[in-house]
Write a structure and sequence with these properties.
The protein has 274 residues and is α/β, with parallel strands linked by helices. Helix content is 32%, strand content 20%.
C-alpha cells in the first residue's frame, strides 16, 4: 500500500478541514438536524500509527497479488480518515450511525459534496451481527456514490475510536471478518486493574465499565487487556499480523477507569481474515 500518498492526502485534507467544517456547520441540512460535529481529531489521534502498521507489514502488498483498492472506515465520525483514503485513490466506504447529538453520515455526506470525493456513506449501527446487504440497504450520501464495481469483500477495514463503544464486540468482529481481507482495529486497553497494583496485561480478561467511569461517558462499555484483545480477534476468525501500543505513562501502567488522569493505553491490531 502506498503510504506516501496517504500522508500527502492527510496533509491536503488538514489544510482544508477547518474551512470544510465551517461550510458544513452553516448548511441548512446541518442546522435543521440540530447536531454537532464530532469534537475529537481522529487524524491526530491515530493516523501515524495506521501508517506505521501499513508500512511495517508485507501483508497488504500481497492480497491476491494486487494492491489494496477498497477501504471501509467503520465508525468514521466526521469522515476525516475516509476522505484521506479517498483522495489517495482508494474506493472508500464510510459507516457510522446518526444520533440525536451527532450525525456523522450527514457530516460526511456534506463534505463529500464539497470535495466531490465520491465516498459511499452508510448510516447503520454495526453493534451486532450484520452482513454486506445491510450496508447496501442503508446507503445514504445524496446520490453521490458511483462505485458500482465494489465487490462484497473490502481489502481493508479501519475501525478507530469505536470498539470500546460496542456492546457486542464479538458479533461485530465476526461480521467484519466475513467481508474483509484485512482490518486495523484500535481500542482502549488496560495493563492493571483500577487499584494500579494488580497486573493483568497478559491475562485474557475484559472490564465492563460502570456509569461514570472512563471520561464519564455512558457510551463506553468495554476495555480489554492486550491478551484478551488479541484472543477476541483470533476467536472471531482473524490472525494477528502486526500490533502497536501507545501508553500515556513511561512505566506502562494503564487501568480501565482513570484514563483522563494519564493511566491510558491504546492498542492497535493489524488483522488478516482467515
Amino acid at each position: 500500500m502506498e503510504c506516501t500518498m496517504l500522508v500527502n492526502s492527510a496533509g491536503k485534507f488538514l489544510e482544508r478541514r477547518s474551512e470544510l467544517y465551517n461550510i458544513v456547520s452553516n448548511t441548512a441540512e446541518f442546522r435543521d438536524a440540530g447536531v454537532r460535529l464530532y469534537p475529537h481529531d481522529t487524524i491526530a489521534a491515530s493516523f501515524s500509527v495506521i501508517v506505521d502498521l501499513l508500512q511495517t507489514s508485507d501483508l497488504l502488498n500481497n492480497l491476491s497479488e494486487k494492491d489494496v483498492k477498497t477501504v471501509l472506515d467503520v465508525g468514521g465520525a466526521n469522515g476525516d480518515l475516509s476522505f484521506v483514503f479517498a483522495d489517495a485513490g482508494y474506493e472508500t466506504t464510510f459507516v457510522d450511525i446518526s444520533k440525536s447529538d451527532e450525525n456523522g453520515p450527514l457530516v460526511a455526506s456534506l463534505i463529500n459534496r464539497q470535495l466531490d470525493s465520491n465516498i459511499r456513506v452508510i448510516d447503520f449501527s454495526i453493534d451486532g451481527y450484520f452482513c454486506y446487504r445491510n450496508l447496501i440497504e442503508r446507503t445514504v450520501n445524496f446520490g453521490q456514490f458511483l462505485h458500482s464495481s465494489q465487490s462484497e469483500m473490502f481489502d481493508l477495514v479501519i475501525c478507530i475510536g469505536l470498539f470500546y463503544h460496542l456492546k457486542n464486540p464479538f458479533a461485530f468482529l465476526e461480521s467484519i471478518r466475513s467481508m474483509c481481507h484485512c482490518c486495523i482495529l484500535e481500542t482502549w486497553l488496560m495493563s492493571y486493574l483500577p487499584d494500579n497494583l494488580t497486573k493483568v496485561r497478559d491475562v485474557p480478561i475484559a472490564y465492563l465499565l460502570g456509569t461514570g467511569e472512563l471520561n464519564n461517558d455512558s457510551s463506553n462499555y468495554w476495555i480489554f487487556t492486550d491478551s484478551s484483545f488479541r484472543r477476541l480477534a483470533e476467536r472471531a476468525g482473524f490472525s494477528v499480523e502486526n500490533s502497536a501500543s501507545e501508553f500515556w505513562r513511561q512505566d506502562k501502567i494503564s487501568n480501565p477507569v482513570d484514563i483522563p488522569n494519564g493511566y491510558g493505553e491504546k492498542g492497535y491490531l493489524l488483522l488478516r481474515s482467515r
